[in-house]
Design a protein that fits this description.
The chain is 42% helix and 15% strand. It is of the alpha/beta class. It has one domain: Aldolase class I (TIM Barrel), CATH 3.20.20. The protein has an eight-stranded parallel barrel with strand order 1-2-3-4-5-6-7-8, surrounded by five helices. The longest helix has 19 residues. The chain is globular, with a radius of gyration of 17 Å. The protein starts with a strand and ends with a helix. Bound molecules: 2-phosphoglycolic acid. The site of 2-phosphoglycolic acid has 13 residues, from strand 8.
Length: 254
């Protein structure tokens, strides 16, 4: 069976409501004949979740994601959004541990482990982001750095729980910089991540986990990157805000 292949859009904190509506309309206008093992996940800002959910309704293979959720079930946490709220509106995915959240909102591997737990407990699939900063890549220690992120945030899970996770490898030096990892660099790290998972959970489980690449994916480079054995699609920022570009990325899925 082919692993799930995913084109995920990460809109970040962009677009007005009207612009979001236009982008969703444009994106859903062109028919993307998704195969059963292919999905499109749209991670939109919280205020647009309902709109996006409504727009993708009835579109096979299209899902909506939140870009974050809180560690707690409910309560006096002004400004936060719970996994239960997301589940109650039919949201299927949540991005957790994006490098921007790690950097600007101090999200540690330990906090992310809690977020992973609560998302799973509400049946929401976490898209867990990992990836090294430039100085780690330059020092050549990216493999152990990224393996540590997996260990501290995921390895408390049972195999059955891990099977529900999607991983996104996003080297920080490639995010929003226009500087993509080469297909070789992506494949090399994805293979390493899969081996790290296999060493802990066994090869059969590791082989089921989609590992997406993120960092300056565009319509023009997606096919090359996605063609690699262990690259199961992409998590796309900038290019996901342009319908034609993201459409090309969807069509580049294996
Ligand atoms: P980018 O962002 O495609 O704009 O580099 C990717 C991401 O941060 O998810």
């Amino acid at each position: 069976m082919m692993r799930q292949q995913i084109a995920a859009a990460n809109w970040k904190m962009n677009l007005t409501y009207a612009q979001a509506e236009d982008l969703l309309n444009d994106l859903l206008l062109s028919p993307h004949a998704l195969k059963p093992h292919q999905s499109v996940v749209l991670a939109v800002p919280f205020p647009y979740l309902s709109l996006a959910k409504h727009k993708v309704d009835g579109k096979a293979g299209f899902f909506v994601a939140a870009q974050n959720c809180y560690t707690k079930k409910s309560g006096a946490y002004t400004g936060e959004t719970s996994a239960e709220m997301l589940q109650s509106m039919g949201i299927e995915y949540v991005i957790l541990g994006h490098s921007e959240r790690r950097e600007y909102f101090n999200e540690s591997n330990a906090v992310l482990a809690e977020k992973i737990n609560i998302a799973l407990s509400y049946n929401i699939t976490p898209i867990f982001c990992c990836g090294e900063p430039l100085q780690i890549r330059e020092a050549g220690t990216q493999n152990s750095y990224v393996a540590e992120q997996l260990k501290e945030s995921l390895f408390h899970l049972s195999a059955e729980q891990l099977e529900k996770i999607v991983i996104a490898y996003e080297p920080i030096w490639a995010i929003g910089t226009g500087k993509t990892a080469t297909a070789d660099q992506a494949q090399e790290m994805h293979a390493h991540l899969r081996t790290t998972l296999a060493n802990h959970y066994g090869k059969e489980v590791a082989d089921m986990i989609p590992i997406l690449y993120g960092g300056s994916v565009k319509g023009s480079n997606a096919k090359d990157i996605f063609s690699r054995t262990d690259v199961d699609g992409g998590l796309v920022g900038g290019a996901s805000l342009i319908a034609a570009d993201f459409g090309q990325i969807i069509d580049a899925l294996k």
